[in-house]
Amino acid sequence: MILGLLLPAACNTSDTTVPVQYEGPLSEAEDVVMHYAEKDRVKVILRAAKILEFQNGDQEFPEGIYMEFYDEWGNISSTLRANDAYYFKNENKWRGRGNVEVVNAQKEEQLNTEELFWKPNDKKIFTDKFVTIKLQSEVLYGTGLEANEDLSNYQIKNPEGEFVVDE
């Protein structure tokens, strides 16, 4: 008789739990160096202390990123450094945050900001944050920027400070 009372209680299916879907990284790599090439020529070298890769193809670089961009002759045209970065696979877009620095090696110009986006297909970088651009003879300030990825051509959306105008 006791067995008959315990059996119905043990078969109660209303207490089943729904499995929790894991949304964390599927893989992790450390001390990574990646080479991106087009037509058998290295275009970008990426260095990162840690990369986390997610199921949707996104990648996170929580310990920073350093990238070198090369021109068609194999010379470094620019570099990018950020405290952390994230790659959005579906949009093919990168985001660097925290002390982001882009240097045009050929013109010796430097861009600094707190957040910067890069779209490799468009070869463009952009931000809505405050930017500083150090030229050889002056420093430019402003909020918002659109530029070529190598900083060869840029536009500050809301420039600030004093400017030299050639007449």
What is the topology?
Layout (H helix, E strand, L loop, with lengths): L1 H9 L16 E12 L2 E13 L5 E3 L3 E6 L5 E7 L1 E5 L4 E12 L4 E11 L4 E11 L4 E10 L5 E7 L7
Give a summary of the structure in a few sentences.
The protein has one helix at 2-10; strands spanning 27-38, 41-53, 59-61, 65-70, 76-82, 84-88, 93-104, 109-119, 124-134, 139-148, 154-160. With 167 residues, the chain is mainly β.
Describe this protein with a few key phrases.
mainly beta, 167 residues, single chain, 1 helix
Largest sheet: 6 strands, antiparallel, barrel
N-to-C span = 105 Å
Q: Ranges with pLDDT <50 over ≥5 residues?
A: none
The tally of helices reads 1
What is the topology, as strand order, of the major beta sheet?
2-3-6-7-5-4
User: Would you tell me the structural class of the helices and strands?
Assistant: mainly beta
CATH architectural name? Sandwich
CATH level 1 class label: Mainly Beta
What's the number of structural domains?
1
Overall mean pLDDT stands at: 88
Helix content: under 10%
Shape: globular
From the alpha carbons, calculate the radius of gyration and give it in angstroms. 24 Å
Proportion of strand residues: over 45%
* CATH topology call: lipopolysaccharide transport protein A fold
What do you see in this structure?
- A hairpin with a 4-residue loop joins β9 and β10.
- The radius of gyration is 24 Å and the shape is globular.
- It is built from one helix and eleven strands.
- The chain has a single domain, classed as lipopolysaccharide transport protein A fold (Sandwich), CATH 2.60.450.10.
- Strands 2-3-6-7-5-4 form a six-stranded antiparallel barrel.
- 5% of the residues lie in helices and 58% in strands.
- The chain is mainly beta and 167 residues long.
- The mean pLDDT is 88.
